[in-house]
Design brief:
- It is a single chain.
- With 208 residues, the protein is α+β, with helices and mostly antiparallel strands.
- Helices cover 57% and strands 18% of the residues.
- The strands form three sheets. A three-stranded antiparallel sheet has the order 3-6-7. A three-stranded mixed sheet has the order 4-8-5, with no helix packed on it.
- α2 packs antiparallel against α3.
- The radius of gyration is 55 Å and the shape is rod-shaped.
- The N and C termini lie far apart (164 Å).
């Protein structure tokens, strides 16, 4: 290849990469910016529908979270109320059971009164010694049975008068040292646990 041909080839290569005007000066080639294609009405509508659907879904999710929170709160309140109701029911049943026991015991007390009265009368007649022994045994057995279910006699004779436990039937003159003390018991009083079934009917000493 001749030198002239080589020079011509180089000139062609230069012409491929640069543009020159008629005077041989290089001209700057401006590249047009690629513009985004214009969206069609259908594309815009679909995008708006998608956005609206997304907003509806987010709103529904937020509403679901609120509903779940209210459900959990209602569930907790229901469990609490159920527990409290169960506690009140158990307490009511226990109170009714105790009241039933108290009523049953109250029906038995007159029997014990009659036994004690029989003992008092029998002790005044020595010919009824055998009867005395039998009646005493019955009374003691009955008192023991009451004691087993929590019934106790109220202490009276020799103790200080207590209006919460005793009922004064009459008074008798006594020395100053015995003032306010119980001198006799007419009817025994009984307690069921902390509850007073009935007060003891007693005679109270009054200091002269």
């Amino acid at each position: 290849m001749s030198e002239e041909e080589i020079n011509n080839e180089e000139e062609v290569k230069v012409d491929d990469k640069r543009r020159f005007n008629t005077e041989g000066e290089r001209v700057k080639v401006e590249v047009e910016e690629i513009k985004e294609p214009i969206k069609s009405a259908e594309v815009i509508r679909l995008e708006n529908d998608l956005k609206a659907e997304k907003e509806r879904r987010e709103a529904a999710e937020a509403k679901l979270v609120g509903v779940q929170a209210k459900f959990d709160e209602a569930k907790n309140n229901l469990e609490k109320e159920t527990q409290e109701m169960r506690g009140r029911l158990m307490k009511t049943l226990e109170e009714r059971a105790k009241q039933g026991q108290s009523n049953f015991i109250m029906t038995l007390l007159p029997v014990l009164d009659n036994l004690n009265l029989a003992i008092d009368h029998a002790e005044k007649d020595s010919s009824l010694e055998n009867l005395i022994g039998g009646v005493k045994g019955t009374a003691r057995s009955f008192e023991n049975a009451l004691r087993e279910v929590g019934v106790e006699a109220v202490a009276s004779v020799g103790t200080d008068f207590n209006p919460e436990l005793h009922e004064a039937i009459d008074m008798v003159e006594v020395s100053a040292e015995e003032d306010g003390k119980i001198t006799a018991e007419y009817s025994r009083g009984y307690k069921f646990g902390e509850k007073l079934l009935r007060p003891a009917k007693v005679q109270v000493g009054k200091g002269s």
